[in-house]
Amino acid sequence: MAEHNADANSSKKNFDFVDTIRCISMMGIVWEHSSAISIDLYTDKTSLLVQSFSLQAFKFVTIAFFLIGGFLINHKFQEYSAKQYLKNRFKNTIKPWLFWMLLFVALTIIDRLVAWHKGSDVGLLSTNFPLYFYKLMNMTLFFSPYWFILNFLICIAILLVFKRYLYKTWFGIILALLSLTYSLNLHFRWFETTHSAALFGFVFYLWLGVYLNRYFETFKQWVARLSWGAIWAGIIITLALSMAESFYLINTGLKDAYNTLRITNIFYSLIVFVALFKMGPIKAIQHLHPRQTTFGIYLIHFIILERILYMVFQPLALDFSQFNIWENTGITFARFLVAYVSSFYITLLLNRTKLKWMVGQ
Q: In sequence order, what E strands does the chain have?
């Protein structure tokens, strides 16, 4: 019992550290989804380097979220039964996720219906609506940012099923080998390569977060012994290697060449996580209320980007392929600011009303 309380207390004591990583990672996710840069758009070296850095710099965010997710759920796994835990998850996670995902689907259908009414060819929408709806749901569920929540829940379910082995090193090794299988698949193409299809590729990082929480004091002491020089060297080296691996994968014809589960990106993500942990809480970030706003930003920002901004700028018929790398980087930054700031304030507003369930926890 004393050990359980120590785990719970260590988790609660370090929420500031979690909030820092949570906030920075969410900014990175919105930046990724705001990108106006296509990987096959440029050929000159300067543009390729700027493009690659823009796409790679925040590629640590998905793995970081799974790590802090595992860190936070460790004591809850011990505190609640599987049934109680899943019940809480439905209220705080699944319910708001379903709402915003279905809202995105509805807005997409309305947009296509308006286009149809104006005389545009909308394909399956007008000829076979059930098939159109099925394909739209499949795309939204598995190939849009909303995949993350489904994947996260699947990972949690797997850990709950194997709860008795949660702190066994051999269990973590099996999960790590599963993740590495997806990494190798990017080079050998045994099956679908997109990271959103890697349903079992992220379980290891959730487990690792649980394991870090379990042995938190040991982890904290290990990080304290690391020098900033070694950490920065690790970040620079793995960042360069990640960019190099992406260049190689692009040359092999892989469309998802910046896949999160590249082996080089895994090491990059882990080192950046350690750096953010060593940096500790940032006071300025607390003003952004990451504990209350992060999930809402995630749920809302994609609708801002793909539906609201799309409708605003559609009449301009912008062709990003006609812009140079600096112009497209500027457009990416502008899209990021609009999406992040809008999602942030919408979440804050909802949190102050009876509709706060929409942005969950």
A: none
CB-neighbour burial class of residue 107 (10 A; exposed 0-12, middle 13-18, buried 19+): middle
Alpha-carbon span 20 to 272, nearest angstrom: 13
Each residue's pLDDT tens digit, 97-155: 999 999 999 999 999 999 898 888 888 898 999 999 999 999 999 889 999 999 999 99
Residues 37 and 19: their CA atoms lie apart, in Å, by 29
- CA-CA distances (angstroms) from residue 242 to 239, 260, 269? 5, 10, 10
How far apart CA 26 and CA 61 sit, in angstroms, is 7
130: which 2 tokens?
């059930």
pLDDT attached to residue 152: 92
Q: What percent of the chain has pLDDT over 90?
A: 70
Question: Cα–Cα distance between 88 and 115 in angstroms, integer?
Answer: 41
User: Could you tell me if 293 and 25 are in contact, meaning their C-beta atoms sit under 8 angstroms apart?
Assistant: no
Alpha-carbon separation of residue 183 from 56, 247, 250, 277, 285 (angstroms): 16, 15, 15, 25, 33
Is the pLDDT assigned to residue 348 strictly greater than 80? yes
Among 340, 358, 333, 349, residue whose Cα is nearest residue 297: 340
Structure tokens at 42: 């440029």
137-144 LR contacts (CB < 8 Å, sep 24+):
137/105, 140/101, 140/104, 140/105, 140/108, 141/101, 142/196, 142/197, 143/194, 143/196, 144/104, 144/196, 144/302
pLDDT digits (tens, 9 = 90+) for 49-108: 999 999 999 999 999 999 999 998 887 877 777 777 777 788 789 999 999 999 999 999
To the nearest 10°, report the CA torsion of 226, 204, 182, 253.
Answer: -50
CA-atom Rg of the chain in angstroms: 21
Angle at 44 between CA 38 and CA 46, to 5 degrees: 90
